[in-house]
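ARCHIVE CARD
CATEGORY: sequence design from structure
SOURCE FIELD: tokenized fold
FIELD CONTENT:
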């Protein structure tokens, strides 16, 4: 399996990596030629060939650019699905976990598509509410077809679910100087977190979303695929003075792990419910209907058998997914995400840990790292203080 490693070997695997056997069927971003020109190291990810890191920078510099300046990620592999027709928003609200009634048009919301029978997470999604008859969803790359399939199967007459996975590119402009960069291009930057607005850049119509998965001030630009190169070039022309850096998916992984943000397939999955993953804040518990409602409400009331916890290395250990966690010589959990934190200069991890016995934050546990027991301290993410609220 291809991993997201620096030359020092510090960075962890990402589970959406696709097997080599499927490499010949990989989709390519409309920005592929720009990545090649920048000396990108590619990896198969969620069925796409995507840049992992770039020559002349690497994960550490790309990560630092987002924490201190501005970086741009091509995340065009993310899915796109549009739900339209009378009552489209109400239909989506009856399927996905969060409550669209909490937001209005022009707002976005993090939500979950759960399995109705088990409560496990099919995917985590950003939903963009345009109107009562128009919702745009951004699922993860590998899960888009399944999310679309489930929505189509449940859609009432008149509601249309369209898979637009390859119709749009998505550029994530992230970092404390991201607003300055977009401002140079005349793009709107004043809207609130988790909101979006239409804009035009050099004749290209696009959507500017005040969203991202890094914990920093940032925006995501949803652009027609045929216009992606022009928008990329405009960003880098304007970003020369801002020292804009192209960033790959390896840095995106270290950034999201520092925030404690879950990655589907590791920290969320069909085997890991929102209750276990401490994602109950993304569930509209009082809604009359959503997929998995009954089983999730029962699990919440009884208390989950395991919960997602944060771990920080006491020594020089670097945890990896799948490693066993011990307390008093007994296995009490498993690492789901683990990496070296470029900001904290130490190993960090998310782990599913047994709820019984209750282990308090600050408790020092042991992680089996290739036969060596390394000490790691339980803590509550985020590991790095985010700049967004």
């Amino acid at each position: 399996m291809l991993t997201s490693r620096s030359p020092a070997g510090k960075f962890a695997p990402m589970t959406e990596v696709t097997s080599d056997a499927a490499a010949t069927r990989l989709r390519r971003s409309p920005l592929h030629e720009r990545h090649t020109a920048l000396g990108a190291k590619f990896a198969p990810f969620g069925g796409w060939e995507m840049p992992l890191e770039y020559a002349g920078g690497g994960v550490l510099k790309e990560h630092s650019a987002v924490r201190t300046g501005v970086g741009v990620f091509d995340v065009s592999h993310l899915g796109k699905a549009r739900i339209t027709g009378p009552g489209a928003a109400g239909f989506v609200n009856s399927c996905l976990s969060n409550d669209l009634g909490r937001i209005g048009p022009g707002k976005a919301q993090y939500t979950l598509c759960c399995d109705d029978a088990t409560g496990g997470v099919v995917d985590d999604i950003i939903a963009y509410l345009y109107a009562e008859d128009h919702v745009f969803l951004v699922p993860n790359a590998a899960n888009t077809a399944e999310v679309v399939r489930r929505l189509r199967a449940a859609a009432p007459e008149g509601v249309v679910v369209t898979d637009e996975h390859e119709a749009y590119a998505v550029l994530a402009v992230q970092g404390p100087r991201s607003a300055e960069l977009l401002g140079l291009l005349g793009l709107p930057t004043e809207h609130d977190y988790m909101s979006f607005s239409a804009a035009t850049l050099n004749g290209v119509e696009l959507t500017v979303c005040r969203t991202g998965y890094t914990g920093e001030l940032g925006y995501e630009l949803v652009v027609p695929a045929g216009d992606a190169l022009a928008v990329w070039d405009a960003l880098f022309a304007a970003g020369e003075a801002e020292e804009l850096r192209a960033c790959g998916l390896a840095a995106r992984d270290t950034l999201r792990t520092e925030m404690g943000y879950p990655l589907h397939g590791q920290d969320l999955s069909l085997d890991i419910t929102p209750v276990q993953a401490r994602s109950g804040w993304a569930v509209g518990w009082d809604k009359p209907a959503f997929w998995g409602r009954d089983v999730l409400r029962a699990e919440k009331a009884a208390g989950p058998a395991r919960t997602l916890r944060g771990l920080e290395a006491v020594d020089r250990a670097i945890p990896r997914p799948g490693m066993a966690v011990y307390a008093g010589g007994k296995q009490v959990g498993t690492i789901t995400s683990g990496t070296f934190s470029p900001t904290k200069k130490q190993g960090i991890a998310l782990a599913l840990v047994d709820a019984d016995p209750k282990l308090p934050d600050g408790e020092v546990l042991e992680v089996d790292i290739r036969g060596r027991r390394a000490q790691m301290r339980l803590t509550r993410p985020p590991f790095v203080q985010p700049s967004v609220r």
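CARD ANNOTATION: DSSP finds eight helices and 20 strands in the chain. The longest helix spans residues 58-68.
SHELF: design records, drawer C
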